[in-house]
């Protein structure tokens, strides 16, 4: 059996990164993001990246780290409202942005992973999202053509995996990680725990090991909170 487990993130990404490459990155906000792999990408110095991800993290966290070091050329994203550096670079013309409706982005990655080069959707018809895209009419309704996404490398975060790379996501951390994992030539996963092959219930596996080429154990993690909301303590 091929050994998919690497000692650290830098080793797992060795030989995979190059300037101008296209990455798919799992996660939603700070939930389910591949923290160790993002740090290794930052430390590698690779630049001019095109990254497909729901968002770009927040300032100084998640993919926000790569924005801060100016390693990102283009973001293909759905929600970018929590990152001031993203906003600054975009308004200054320093960052190319392809805005994509959230469901469409998930389907573009799923389609790319399934070998589907494009599909038609009603989402975005009549808006700026449709500009420059082919429009086709089905049963009297207009649909726009969206291209599937297929990247050079996908970096994802899982909860538990076995030695063969079969992987389980934890609750909402499943988010974009599952479609992103299939939408690249090589998927590198960081997980919290690796167990012997055969330990996981086959019916509980979310991502078959055939998609996972390399893995690291990234634990322990510090739980990051995007917004900390508190209320005054009531008097005794």
Describe the structure.
This is CoA transferase subunit A. GO terms for molecular function: transferase activity. Keywords: Transferase. A seven-stranded parallel sheet has the order 4-3-2-1-8-11-13. A three-stranded antiparallel sheet has the order 5-7-6. The relative contact order is 0.19. It has six helices and 13 strands. By secondary structure, it is of the alpha/beta class. The mean pLDDT is 94. β3 (72-77), α4 (84-91) and β4 (96-99) form a beta-alpha-beta unit.
Stretches where pLDDT falls below 50 for ≥5 residues?
none
Number of helices: 6
* Form type: globular
**What is the H/E order?**
HEHEHEHEHEEEEEEHEEE
Taking the alpha carbons of the first and last residues, their distance comes to 62 Å
What characterizes the major β-sheet?
A: 7 strands, parallel
| Helix proportion range | 10-25%
User: How much beta, percentage-wise?
Assistant: 25-35%
Strand order of the largest sheet: 4-3-2-1-8-11-13
Classify the secondary structure makeup into a structural class: alpha/beta
- Rg calc: 19 Å
Number of strands: 13
**Which whole number gives the mean pLDDT?**
94
Organism: Sphingobium olei
Protein name: CoA transferase subunit A
GO molecular function, one term: transferase activity
InterPro entries: 3-oxoacid_CoA-transf_A, CoA_trans_fam_I, NagB/RpiA_transferase-like
Quick recap:
With 236 residues, the protein is an alpha/beta fold. The chain has helices spanning 9-13, 35-44, 64-68, 84-91, 102-113, 177-182, and strands at residues 22-25, 49-52, 72-77, 96-99, 118-121, 135-138, 141-147, 151-157, 160-162, 167-168, 184-191, 193-195, 212-217. Strands 4-3-2-1-8-11-13 form a 7-stranded parallel β-sheet. Strands 5-7-6 form a 3-stranded antiparallel β-sheet.
